[in-house]
Amino acid sequence: MGTIETDADLWREAVAGDGAAYGALFDRHQGRVFRHAYRLLQHVPDAEDATAAAFLELWRRRGAVRLVDGSVRPWLLLTATNCARNLTRSRRRYQAVLDALPRESTVDPPPDPLDAALVAAIARLRPRDARLLALVALGDLEIGEAALVVGLTPGAARTRLHRIRATLQSDLGRSVRAPHLTETP
After folding, report:
1. Is 148 helix (H, G, I), strand (E, B) or coil?
2. What is the pLDDT of residues 55-69, one digit of tens each?
3. At 113, phi and psi to the nearest 5?
4. What range does the domain containing 123 cover?
5. Within a domain: residue 27?
6. What are the start-end ranges of the H helices in 42-173?
């Protein structure tokens, strides 16, 4: 390659296939092009993308690139500006699509104080009574099926469920209505 100092000389060598000359142009102008892209985008990764795209376009369009006053820098800066605009437009479109998507609330609503009181009241039940209540009220089992699971007779399970309901009403200070708890055979 010899001693080549001007962009025009480096560019001529790069177009002829000299990778070292293209590398020298990159080293010479990369910092300036990056700073220009960063001023436009205010985001380092985007500025790096715009810089890389500008140099890629420089190589891809090498047959049509015109030097200005013997330098590729003006062409690179203009191309980096266009790449930055494309990135900004792309981000705006992407954000518009995201904004248009339906969203479910990711924040759970605050717990109902009554629910917390009910959980606390159930926690105070004897373990077998709590299991029986869960199987009948939440597990949708018939009283007879739940009785077998917890080791009771169906009659004993009905009696316990009646007492559980009375205990919960007393603890919560209100009427506890659960269809399975008042079921008759």
Report:
1. helix
2. 999 999 988 898 999
3. -60, -30
4. 113-182
5. yes
6. 44-60, 73-100, 113-123, 127-133, 143-150, 154-172
